[in-house]
Specification:
Number of helices: 11
Shape: globular
Radius of gyration: 22 Å
CATH superfamily of the largest domain: Carbonic anhydrase
Bound molecules: zinc ion
CATH class of the largest domain: Alpha Beta
CATH architecture of the largest domain: 3-Layer(aba) Sandwich
Number of domains: 2
Strand order of the largest sheet: 2-1-3-4-5
Order of helices and strands: HHHHEHEHEHHHHHEE
Length: 236
């Protein structure tokens, strides 16, 4: 009898341990599961934002989630259903998938120097949201942006001249004294933030995106990445 009791306790203890060990990997497995149209549909715009905020918190804390990327490649081979889209700079220090701790099939990423939006990027975002179902657009600027510095200094070089001209209105939108210079780090930061703000406004006015925002199916937000810390702050 005592032996049976001990055995029962052992079984119960084992069951508890098993449940405990399964609980943690179950969460990790869920994080590594690729999005399907069904699971994408369950993510609200606010939840999409929360996912990216939590991802950046993991990135900053050095607690990124490691998944089997080859498995994710296999699971996304026949389709994708990313929950968010990011417009970011080409800067090597701000890869959206890494700084938001996301993986294969999670986010659309459009990258161009100075994270500006022209008609082609806008068309890409219309595809990402209206057709492919992403619930969130993040315009992601960053500190120490070379494109913003070039715009502040009114630099000229080949096709870069035309690109920087699209950032110049942000300079006109902030206060400064004298001749603007990229040596003024605070000015560069203000222009970078203003550029993000203006870009968010531009997207919000685009009819295809505005329609989705009006129906509560899409959120458009601006954010700034700090290349010194990896931390992303969200613009109001
Ligand atoms: Zn940049």
């Amino acid at each position: 009898m005592a032996q049976n009791l001990n055995r029962r306790r052992l079984v119960q203890a084992f069951a508890a341990v098993t449940a405990g060990t399964l609980a943690a990997p179950a969460l990790a497995r869920n994080e590594c599961a690729v999005f399907t149209r069904q699971t994408q549909e369950q993510v609200t715009p606010d939840a999409a934002l929360k996912r990216l905020q939590e991802g950046n918190a993991r990135f900053v804390a050095g607690e990124t989630i490691h998944c089997d990327l080859r498995q994710q490649v296999r699971e996304t081979a026949t389709g994708q259903a990313p929950f968010a889209a990011v417009v970011g700079c080409i800067d090597s220090r701000v890869p959206p998938e890494l700084v938001f701790d996301q993986r294969i099939g999670d986010i659309f990423a459009a990258r161009v120097a100075g994270n500006i939006v022209n008609d082609d990027i806008l068309g890409s975002l219309e595809f990402a949201t209206q057709l492919a179902g992403a619930k969130l657009i993040v315009v992601l600027g960053h500190s120490e942006c070379g494109a913003v510095k070039g715009a502040v200094d009114d630099a000229k070089l080949g096709h870069l001249t035309g690109l920087l001209a699209q950032i110049r209105p942000a300079l006109a939108g902030v206060e400064y004294r004298g001749v603007p210079s990229s040596k003024d780090k605070a000015l560069v930061q203000r222009v970078a933030e203003r550029n993000v703000y203006d870009t968010v406004k531009k997207l919000a006015r685009a009819p295809v995106l505005a329609g989705q925002v009006g129906e509560g199916r899409l959120l458009i937000v601006g954010a700034m990445h700090d290349v010194g810390t990896g931390k992303i702050s969200w613009l109001a």
